[in-house]
């Protein structure tokens, strides 16, 4: 029989072996947590001589290296795309302005034959659509480059919303979208006027692009804040609701106009910069966007 002392030594050796392995694994887990929580090129390091642990560490490091390379390539691709958007947007602005000027000049010509007038009118509409998309791209580029400064001031949100709705009245009438306004008077809030105007314009623009027959715009006080809700009917149901906030994603819900797929993204970003929250809801042939500003989330007056 094997002496008890020898058995005890063997058991202690095995236990020590497993304890050392557990310590190595805990070290690896700690390092992995740090790598997962931070943007870093760090790889795993172990001091053990255990062949199995060393082999495991090497394999994990290979996976980390591949993931880091993929991430770096993705960042570079996104930077190249953003630069291309910046360059294309600015390159298009001047010729688009010139073309719009010529189309307006032709439309003002009373001697222009009716058939040609209709063609120029259609051209002018397309140029206006292109101009709207270009402005969205330029604003998107400013957001990417952090070139938008938020300067909150006491703003009459009710008046600003009413004026924005009036600016879109003719276009909504032309699209035969009956719009109901439920705006509480004289709602004051600390907001940046330019950024808030952009939010309202994009909300109205979204109704104009995708709305069908009826829309409702409501502004009211809620608990410790204000809430803007825009609801509109749709001609067709939304197919991919979860992708609506993706940049450049678009669905042709009205069968009328294509759009750049940036409007909702810009609404969310400009609202977030002012401490606001945006929620989207859809139910069959109805779409709703809700923007809420709460006192606790208001930005400081020197916010950026």
TrEMBL record:
<dbReference type="InterPro" id="IPR005467">
    <property type="entry name" value="His_kinase_dom"/>
</dbReference>
<feature type="domain" description="Histidine kinase">
    <location>
        <begin position="87"/>
        <end position="297"/>
    </location>
</feature>
<keyword id="KW-0812">Transmembrane</keyword>
<keyword id="KW-1133">Transmembrane helix</keyword>
<keyword id="KW-0597">Phosphoprotein</keyword>
<dbReference type="GO" id="GO:0005524">
    <property type="term" value="F:ATP binding"/>
</dbReference>
<keyword id="KW-0067">ATP-binding</keyword>
<keyword id="KW-0902">Two-component regulatory system</keyword>
<dbReference type="InterPro" id="IPR036097">
    <property type="entry name" value="HisK_dim/P_sf"/>
</dbReference>
<keyword id="KW-0547">Nucleotide-binding</keyword>
<keyword id="KW-1003">Cell membrane</keyword>
<dbReference type="GO" id="GO:0000155">
    <property type="term" value="F:phosphorelay sensor kinase activity"/>
</dbReference>
<dbReference type="InterPro" id="IPR036890">
    <property type="entry name" value="HATPase_C_sf"/>
</dbReference>
<dbReference type="GO" id="GO:0005886">
    <property type="term" value="C:plasma membrane"/>
</dbReference>
<protein>
    <recommendedName>
        <fullName>histidine kinase</fullName>
        <ecNumber>2.7.13.3</ecNumber>
    </recommendedName>
</protein>
<dbReference type="Pfam" id="PF02518">
    <property type="entry name" value="HATPase_c"/>
</dbReference>
<dbReference type="InterPro" id="IPR003594">
    <property type="entry name" value="HATPase_dom"/>
</dbReference>
<dbReference type="InterPro" id="IPR008358">
    <property type="entry name" value="Sig_transdc_His_kin/Pase_MprB"/>
</dbReference>
<keyword id="KW-0472">Membrane</keyword>
<dbReference type="Pfam" id="PF00512">
    <property type="entry name" value="HisKA"/>
</dbReference>
<keyword id="KW-0808">Transferase</keyword>
<dbReference type="InterPro" id="IPR003661">
    <property type="entry name" value="HisK_dim/P_dom"/>
</dbReference>
<dbReference type="InterPro" id="IPR050398">
    <property type="entry name" value="HssS/ArlS-like"/>
</dbReference>
<keyword id="KW-0418">Kinase</keyword>
<feature type="transmembrane region" description="Helical">
    <location>
        <begin position="6"/>
        <end position="25"/>
    </location>
</feature>
């Amino acid at each position: 029989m094997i002496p008890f002392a020898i058995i005890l030594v063997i058991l202690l050796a095995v236990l020590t072996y497993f304890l050392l392995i557990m310590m190595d694994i805990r070290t690896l887990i700690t390092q992995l947590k740090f790598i997962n929580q931070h943007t870093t090129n760090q790889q795993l390091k172990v001091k053990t001589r255990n062949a199995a642990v060393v082999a495991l560490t090497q394999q994990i490091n290979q996976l980390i290296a591949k993931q880091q390379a993929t991430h770096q390539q993705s960042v570079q691709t996104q930077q190249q795309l953003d630069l291309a958007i910046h360059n294309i947007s600015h390159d298009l602005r001047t010729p688009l302005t010139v073309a719009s000027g010529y189309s307006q000049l032709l439309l003002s010509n009373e001697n222009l034959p009716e058939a040609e007038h209709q063609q120029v009118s259609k051209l002018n509409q397309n140029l206006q659509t292109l101009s709207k998309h270009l402005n969205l791209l330029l604003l998107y580029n400013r957001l990417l480059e952090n070139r938008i400064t938020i300067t909150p001031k006491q703003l009459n949100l009710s008046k600003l919303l009413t004026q924005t709705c009036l600016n879109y009245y003719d276009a909504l009438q032309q699209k035969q979208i009956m719009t109901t306004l439920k705006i509480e008077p004289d709602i004051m809030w600390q907001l940046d006027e330019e950024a808030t105007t952009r939010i309202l314009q994009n909300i109205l623009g979204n109704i104009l692009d995708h709305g069908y027959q009826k829309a409702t715009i409501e502004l009211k006080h809620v608990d410790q804040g204000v809430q803007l809700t825009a609801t509109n009917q749709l001609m067709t149901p939304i197919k991919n609701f979860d992708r609506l906030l993706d940049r450049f994603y678009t669905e042709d819900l009205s069968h009328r106009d294509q759009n750049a797929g940036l409007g909702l993204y810009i609404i969310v970003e400009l609202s977030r910069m002012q401490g606001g929250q945006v929620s989207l809801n859809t139910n069959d042939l109805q779409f709703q966007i809700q923007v809420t500003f709460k006192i606790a989330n208001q930005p400081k007056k020197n916010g950026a």
